[in-house]
Amino acid sequence: MVSLGEVLLRFDPENERIHTARSFRVFDGGAEYNVARGLAKVFRRKTAIVTALADNALGRLAEDFVLQAGVDASEIVWRSGGGTDTRNGIYFIERGFGLRAPASCFDRANTAVSQLKTGEINWHEIFNQYGTRWFHTGGVFVGLSETTPEVAKEAMQAARANGAIVSFDLNYRDSLWKNKGGREAANAVNRELLPLVDVVFGAMDFDARLSHFDAEKFRQAAEKMLSEFADLKIVCSTLREVHSASRHDLSAVCFRNGEIFKAKSYENIEVLDRVGSGDAFASGLIYGLLAEKDLQFAVECGAAHALLAMTTPGDNSTATLEEVENLMQGASGNVKR
Amino acid sequence: MVSLGEVLLRFDPENERIHTARSFRVFDGGAEYNVARGLAKVFRRKTAIVTALADNALGRLAEDFVLQAGVDASEIVWRSGGGTDTRNGIYFIERGFGLRAPASCFDRANTAVSQLKTGEINWHEIFNQYGTRWFHTGGVFVGLSETTPEVAKEAMQAARANGAIVSFDLNYRDSLWKNKGGREAANAVNRELLPLVDVVFGAMDFDARLSHFDAEKFRQAAEKMLSEFADLKIVCSTLREVHSASRHDLSAVCFRNGEIFKAKSYENIEVLDRVGSGDAFASGLIYGLLAEKDLQFAVECGAAHALLAMTTPGDNSTATLEEVENLMQGASGNVKR
Amino acid sequence: MVSLGEVLLRFDPENERIHTARSFRVFDGGAEYNVARGLAKVFRRKTAIVTALADNALGRLAEDFVLQAGVDASEIVWRSGGGTDTRNGIYFIERGFGLRAPASCFDRANTAVSQLKTGEINWHEIFNQYGTRWFHTGGVFVGLSETTPEVAKEAMQAARANGAIVSFDLNYRDSLWKNKGGREAANAVNRELLPLVDVVFGAMDFDARLSHFDAEKFRQAAEKMLSEFADLKIVCSTLREVHSASRHDLSAVCFRNGEIFKAKSYENIEVLDRVGSGDAFASGLIYGLLAEKDLQFAVECGAAHALLAMTTPGDNSTATLEEVENLMQGASGNVKR
Amino acid sequence: MVSLGEVLLRFDPENERIHTARSFRVFDGGAEYNVARGLAKVFRRKTAIVTALADNALGRLAEDFVLQAGVDASEIVWRSGGGTDTRNGIYFIERGFGLRAPASCFDRANTAVSQLKTGEINWHEIFNQYGTRWFHTGGVFVGLSETTPEVAKEAMQAARANGAIVSFDLNYRDSLWKNKGGREAANAVNRELLPLVDVVFGAMDFDARLSHFDAEKFRQAAEKMLSEFADLKIVCSTLREVHSASRHDLSAVCFRNGEIFKAKSYENIEVLDRVGSGDAFASGLIYGLLAEKDLQFAVECGAAHALLAMTTPGDNSTATLEEVENLMQGASGNVKR
Amino acid sequence: MVSLGEVLLRFDPENERIHTARSFRVFDGGAEYNVARGLAKVFRRKTAIVTALADNALGRLAEDFVLQAGVDASEIVWRSGGGTDTRNGIYFIERGFGLRAPASCFDRANTAVSQLKTGEINWHEIFNQYGTRWFHTGGVFVGLSETTPEVAKEAMQAARANGAIVSFDLNYRDSLWKNKGGREAANAVNRELLPLVDVVFGAMDFDARLSHFDAEKFRQAAEKMLSEFADLKIVCSTLREVHSASRHDLSAVCFRNGEIFKAKSYENIEVLDRVGSGDAFASGLIYGLLAEKDLQFAVECGAAHALLAMTTPGDNSTATLEEVENLMQGASGNVKR
Amino acid sequence: MVSLGEVLLRFDPENERIHTARSFRVFDGGAEYNVARGLAKVFRRKTAIVTALADNALGRLAEDFVLQAGVDASEIVWRSGGGTDTRNGIYFIERGFGLRAPASCFDRANTAVSQLKTGEINWHEIFNQYGTRWFHTGGVFVGLSETTPEVAKEAMQAARANGAIVSFDLNYRDSLWKNKGGREAANAVNRELLPLVDVVFGAMDFDARLSHFDAEKFRQAAEKMLSEFADLKIVCSTLREVHSASRHDLSAVCFRNGEIFKAKSYENIEVLDRVGSGDAFASGLIYGLLAEKDLQFAVECGAAHALLAMTTPGDNSTATLEEVENLMQGASGNVKR
What 3-state class would DSSP assign to A97? Predict the structure, then answer.
């Protein structure tokens, strides 16, 4: 599986606030990368990340994380890391607690990956070499610059030509779009790309709050997307209710071939860090499909993985496949020794 | 705004217990100081603390905190810091967890601030120089020694003479009073001072448990205070229910001119550290009044600030005004990125 | 009070996972030792641990913990600590969070204590010297090797001969028994020893989930045990419901002389680290009996101590007797200052 | 005293390397700011920093540091902190150890301060308001962008017009200049500004290695500068020999009115973190002059402060004036208790 | 061996400074206690500390340290720990680095131990019960208050009556004496007690700098003391040269019966934390004498222990007897594995 | 390049001692693995480790480190991780300071890797697949058990058959051999394998102290080895002088074809952690040869890498190739920014 997107360094003040902290832990992150990371580290699939990094100490720190995750780092494009023109993306995030919401401060202007252009990456070689069965990218990557939507399109076309399934996450980041047209502009770009997509994460025109879930409305929203984009086969979404930063309800839902698959609902779940749980859902669901399980398994697997991703610090899950399966089977949280 | 009270160093074993810890984080604290700190750091008002410190490394550490908070440190009275006669106040506090209650160990005997005497501070210069609009002190400061009630009285008189509003927090500390007459003695001192007070935090003869809240009883208690102290205009109180050290219900209530203003109730709130939330309420409410909002805004602002103060370690809030306002408007705890 | 069992070093990745951690805190643990530790540190009783350690830096670290706990370390048998044949026991444990269950990885093969043999310890001297009134051991120790059940029997016989009460915890560890007969084999060993036991922790053939508690069924299970083992006087058990790793219900129950004593039920308790709470129950109950309180006090004391043990990191409680008593009397978790 | 320059956030992996770290401490830094900070925190002079920051969580973190340092933060120009166009400057630095040299990775493109333009700051008000006696800026600030040299010139002219002494540090940063003409271009900019300078830190055409120090050569270099820039009165420089990242020799030298003032030489000094020691020299020397000590005192004070700055982590010294004076008087490093 | 003195809690900012720290590690300390601790933990001798503590969380933390050290805590006198009148002693200490000297801030007014009075402690029972062979106290304890010299005298007399050797460390603390007569007053108190002493640490009228060591002058100083105090048998002293806080020369010297015993000199020794090395010398020397080694062994053992105590944080050594012996035999600092 | 050996988890108490620590950092280590790690992470060569691990959380932690190092983890043989019979190797190490020597406590009995047997690994596939040019193993691996020497021989034969150069490090570990014949037995095993070796690290019968270095004696020792083992081409050794745990002299020497190549000598080098510096020498030298530099470059590269490895915590270097080259060219330890 190959993913295209930014590898970010996440600076996290843990229990403190960004604006008063005196130290930060650092993690790896980046929406599209997180999906590849989950598949590699948790689900033990071979994955590679296609991205660009400035070749300085921060870029090498990002590589150190990619390697630790077991994601193939050999397709990273290294740019000269002088520091002024071409940067590495970083973000600062607080995970929140109780009534204090998570907060973030992104610093990703002029990053190497945002400067990627079509023609720079030999996609056919990549898809061939790895016998790639799945390609993933999403709305964060295509929001990075003017050129990234074209790079995404180029990759998707190559993926399809090489027989890989294409997935896309509609992820919208206001910090990327607010100065260039907002959600409407983002949607316009997404619409350019969705004709090349098989599986989409995020359902347009759909209220994803769990307590508002209505199977009929989801069916309508999904069918509308499928009718608009002929090659689209699966529409999925997490369902979530935020009681506080520390307590959520979570489920997920999926649509294919006129049929709805809904994961069981988890209520009043203790949340340590919600960031990245949507990406964890995506990797769990993709795992199910790559492992040729049925779609009910896939959506339950995605939901269970998303839940476990919220129980540890950082964007990414530290779960094992066995833990995901135990949770899918209703494990009680009891200790085994 | 000028506050009179002790700046304490708080030693906090975080997840450990005081009696088995091997390291302590240090924070700033002190009930009256916390109010000035909240107004400065969160609500961006100019504030100064009037206090005394022994001039040694611990005193300079306290000053380091005051500066970081953005509170004016130039009115600190520095005493010779030999260490034996004149100390700096410290306290050890555990924030508790679940059924394990918070616990504290105060070590504030013979502190520089407790040795303050009338005539030492040029109050008129202070109130003039800063164009001070508000003066705050409270029951902790006046419980420190025999001389501090007189210093408080002197300051209040000067404040009133200079047109500043005077607020007073009835805060009772058993560790200060248990050897010199207990709550009754404390009340006697408070009664000496309340004739000089405009806004009082804490309502006498009132059960402040949220589940026991009865508007009529609060009205009676408040009116009784107003009738006893002719210049008193506002009586406020937090309302709280402690389910466990980690879970509270919280609201607040205020009385003026025969009218009750009650903040909305927040239930089953996750609590990280409750210490200082009463002071946070005070600074939020004072902010509302200084910013010339109505009293309903002020009491909601105080409650929201108190809630946010309970979501981070230390006595004091790390919130921003924007976060307080978001919470007042019902923010869901969702991440923005 | 004298306990016989292994002193383990617990390596704990705190908020991280074992398989991705870069640092570990270390604690002391070991089921039977934990009981002696609780009695010494919390309940201020004189206790000693009988165990064996390899004499190397890890063994001395274990001794450092035993001393800190106030448990007498002079009955530790020191083996040559070359490292290859005779090891010290360690375990890695994650406390879990929310839907992520606690997890462990024991590494206790070939430990010095598992190599103890009958005749090596002068039990009569030990029981005499300390005027020992209570002896405790349990199912973990007797599961360590082929020789440890005989050592336990030898100790129990000496204890009884010296007038000490004998307690035994049925604790079953699958990691110890899965390669040598499982629970059935463990029960066979326990049955060899129960004729020498006065107080047993754990009730055979009894569903210990709090929501399934049925006084009649407990009576039957307890009476069956008492009828099988003539000298057995008291059967106790914690009652527990695991909602998530972070939220439990807890109570406890005890049977003596046809009478059931049930502690009050605590529901939806915030849990930081559940490991060791069963041992904390045992030490609380034994304290009650050693202090000649009635059995209702003892079972409430055990339950309260178990609850407090779950509010701090590590196997063991950091509570004080005063805190246990406050909780037994319904303390609200309010701060005292 | 007023300083003009960037306030940077310094991310420091402490004993680790940037490219493998998992956490970073954060400090404040920035060459010109460090001088103001030293004067405020160590030498207890009133100072203000003129700079610009993007108004986001990172900018507020920078402000938190400025406040803690006791530097007046009210002249900070706040820019909209959207994050893409206008950033806050950060840098990553390793302090090195033994044969491993310090290393850095600057990320200061498009910072708010680099976008400052003439006419934006009311310099006359600033110099008047504070009764400013000294103005400082330097080669780092003027290297930030095309506009900053003009801002520096504007400030210097206003300073001189208001009777303040002007100092300038020739600090050269290759990371700022390598793409726009290197050291030659930097010198050209400096030469534009030196006609407005009274005291210059750094001597052109001078070998600053302590072992190569030759009073005659220094005299020639200093006199050449004084002859080129008529208003220049004092030329100073540290003298240094780097044996390893952990061991330096250090001294300093100063020239005025044909006379050389050389501080005593400190040899084989243990170094924890050398970064910022040049700025510490500047603040110590300026203190001497502001306090109206003689120039020999000033250069010794600068050298002693530089030495103490190298004994703690971070750019800045944590020394007290008393410690600086003790070291100037030959203190032995003995403990006082 | 029994020691009489204060158990202090040491708050240590590690690499930071007290006046800017945000966390502190805590250690145990106290000059006379440190000697008992070294004998117990390093040299594996049975020791007890006689002291008094206020019974609050800080006092229990001090007890936790005493237990961990393996020192008998059962002779601690517990005072009511209200906090105002009777405190526990704490001190803040920085270990220094290079040219930055160690610094301290003691806060030990009104401590429980300073309030000890004659008649409160049953010395004969203590000396009998433990079969005590050695009693130690010193100049810090006797400087605590007006009553402590009398308590020391009472203890010394009882010790001698019970056949124990009495040692005394002349340790002078300016912070204790500066307001009550300084070094002269301290010496007057010491002279009252020296008639009861067998072994004295510290030689009056002797320059203890290693580079100034002159055997003849030491002989004169020692003989003068022996002639003044008839029962005094041994006079010892460390010899030290402080190049910087991080680099010392160290040796030690001893006089008995007209004969000088000098340990070998260690030069340019790397020092992490020098505090407590004098106490470590005392415990090493006492060990040598208790173990009936010759005086040359004892003084070498003391010096080697002092050196090892300077290689770890905290007042006290973490060495093992084997390490002390290896160093005495000239171990090269090579790793064994 | 392929290496055969154990991947150990290193538990490191940092500034503390193993026997009193309360937390440990964890690193990866293992002599033969370290060589592969250095080549991958520092010198950017493709390397793989052949080893066996028990499949439990500790084994997966070891894998996490291998991945982070950029070493291929796909040739790890995973054993069932029950925990009792088949363990993962761990060791505890203190890096020492000044006169306190490094100390260690190995716990590697019954590890999965020690149970490797001939016939289990398809060496020809491994050497073919990776086009392996170099194979490394050494005296630690062959000392693990009775079977490992045979596994090493099998691997060496396959390596030679596939045209790879074979290197072997004579590393002797007393903890492995003391119960089975000591150094003599180790040498006997080594002599069995040296006929298959091209490059040997460690010279028999040679005093490796730098101050004792005598070119003629080294020539004799090397020639004796070459004459005994016909295929041996290169004999290398570090040269070292240990002044204290914190200060070494270091150099290295190499012999080939009658010619001696000696690296320059580095004196009085500050050492943070010496463990693993011999392995770093090996990887630097192998890099030189793989990169087809001359032998003088190779031995200088090895020495420089060894020096850098001693400036950071952990067994392994965090250097970059650029840093190694800078040091070889005499870099002064100055900061670049």
Answer: strand
ipTM, interface predicted TM-score of the complex: 0.95
pLDDT at D129: 80
Cα gap B236→B234, rounded to integer Å: 6
Q: Quote the crossing angle between the two packed helices D277-290 and D295-309, to the nearest 10°.
A: 150
N-to-C CA span, chain F: 35
Q: Do B20 and E175 touch (CB under 8 A)?
A: no
Angle at F241 between CA F237 and CA F242, to 5 degrees: 125
pLDDT score recorded for residue F84: 64
Residue F95 touches chain C, beta carbons under 8 Å: no
In the numeric block, the tokens 């940092």 are attached to F14
- Beta carbons of C62 and C167 less than 8 angstroms apart: no
CB A167 within 8 Å of CB A197: yes
State chain E's mean pLDDT as an integer. 95
Pairs of residues, one from chain A and one from chain C, whose beta carbons lie less than 8 Å apart: 76
What pLDDT shows up at residue D298?
A: 98
Chains touching chain A through at least 3 C-beta pairs below 8 angstroms are B, C, D, F
Q: Which among C145, C160, C137, C146 is positioned nearest to C50, based on CA atoms?
A: C137
Closest-approach residue (CA) in chain F for D176: F337
Q: What percent of chain E is modeled with pLDDT above 90?
A: 92
pTM: 0.97
Q: How far apart are CA C76 and CA E70, in angstroms?
A: 14
Q: Which among A60, A64, A320 has the least Cβ separation from residue F68?
A: A64
Are residues E244 and D333 in contact, defined by beta-carbon separation less than 8 angstroms? yes
User: Does E19 touch chain D if contact means CB atoms closer than 8 Å?
Assistant: yes
Query: What residue ranges of chain C have pLDDT lower than 50?
Result: none
Whether residue F15 lies within 8 A of chain D, CB to CB, comes out as no
Facing A68 at nearest CB: one of F60, F68, F320 = F68
Query: Which chain B residues contact residue C318 at CB under 8 A?
Result: 16-17, 19-20
DSSP bridge pairs for C111? C87
Interface test with E, best of B10, B16, B19, B79 (most E CBs within 10 A): B19
pLDDT < 50 stretches in chain F: none
Model confidence at E290, pLDDT cuts 50, 70, 90, reads very high
Closest-CA residue of D relative to B66 is: D68
List of chain D residues with pLDDT < 70: 81-84, 332-337
Specify the 3-state DSSP secondary structure of B290. helix
Contact status, residue E8 vs residue E314, Cβ threshold 8 Å: no
d(CA D251, CA F98): 28
Cα→Cα distances B277→B104, B305, B306, Å: 16, 8, 5
* Interchain CB contacts (distance < 8 Å): A and D: 94
Other residues' Cβ atoms within 10 Å of the Cβ of residue C180: 12
| Strand segments (E) across chain A | 2-4, 8-12, 23-29, 48-55, 76-80, 90-94, 103-107, 134-138, 165-169, 199-201, 234-244, 247-256, 259-262, 266-270
Quick one: DSSP state of residue B167? E
Q: Mind telling me how many Å the CA of D270 is from chain E's nearest CA?
A: 5
Q: What is the pLDDT along chain A (337 residues), one digit of tens a residue?
A: 999 999 999 999 999 999 999 999 999 999 999 999 999 999 999 999 999 999 999 999 999 999 999 999 999 999 986 656 799 999 999 999 999 999 999 998 899 999 999 999 999 999 988 789 999 999 999 999 999 999 999 999 999 999 999 999 999 999 999 989 999 999 999 999 999 999 999 999 999 999 999 999 999 999 999 999 999 999 999 999 999 999 999 999 999 999 999 999 999 999 999 999 999 999 999 999 999 999 999 999 999 999 999 999 999 999 999 999 999 998 766 666 6
